[in-house]
Design brief:
single chain; 10 strands; globular; alpha+beta; Beta-lactamase; about 375 residues; two-stranded antiparallel sheet
Length: about 375
Amino acid sequence: MTKLQDPIRHRRCSRSLRLATLGCCVALLGCRTPEPATRSVPEPAPVAPPLRAADSDRTTIAAPRFAPLARYSAERGGHAVLVVEGDQVVFAQGQNGHAIDAPHPLYNASESFWGAVALAAETDGYLDLDEPVAFTLPEFADAGWKQDIRVRHLLSYTSGLEAGVWPLSRDVPHDRFQRSLSLEVIAPPGERFQYGPSHLAVFGELLRRKLEPEGLDAVDYLERRILDPIGANLGEWRRDGAGNPDLAEGGSATARDWARFGQWLRDRGSWRGETIVKASQLAPCFVGSAVRPDFGLAVWLNPTGLAPVADPVVMAAGTGNQRLYVVPSLDLVAVRFGREDRTWRDNEFLSLLADAHRLSVPPREPEPLAN
């Protein structure tokens, strides 16, 4: 078992050694045919309790050790910065006239929810990652390479579909999901990484058909299965004329609510001791494909092996330098909102985050001299 798959065991070990390596530890960017899944519809989960008093009593939470981090963000068009250590919000600041608790567009970082949603849906018996998409979408049957696309290919952006930026985002069709079914396949599934909204639009239609008997859509399921249990409330999703949510780019959230989702990812499917999705079932979210090892299921991964004592950083990245950073080894989650600025560098921000976190770690006792 790797450190990424079992962060609870490793994250508190040798934290001072891991801090030194965090700055360099960021990345910008043969299938079986299963038996039909047995469906088990989950009951609505209980809503998580509100944030701790220390988190919710103050809108702005200042800490001098985060001043360089905040300045770096503000000077590059920052709108908000929030940092969580363990379960505690230790820094929260709105920037350049923006309020810390105002919902903010996530743009294409909206994709960060859907790998987790797919794995929750697999747990509940709605789908299997390795099932052919054509099981649910007959439009893909007997359609060349399309008939070989699996659900996993959609979430890892290796389906072979064209990116679909113009037909799905720029032109904004009346029915985005239906339009996605007619997109061309430009490579065999699993052999090419293609970033774009096409994969999630097809996944959205697939999930819509899976959930239709329950009267749910993808966003309903996300809220019921994951967000409500952790007490996170997203803003309204942008939808097309047919009512379909834009899974790739249409989400918005406050910094605190997105950070809660980051904490849930960091703790591998648990929320303050309560299991929402088992860690073993969520683990595929954090495994890259053969053609793009630094991209899991709709989240970016830091390549392993850069530093032998550091766990990878999990990152959601959106246009305008919207960022969610999850650092399991340091028990850290950070959210940053802003506008486009070409001088933004993820490794510089993470280096400042590590420096600030280092100041919260008590100095180690000196080692005794060897005899």
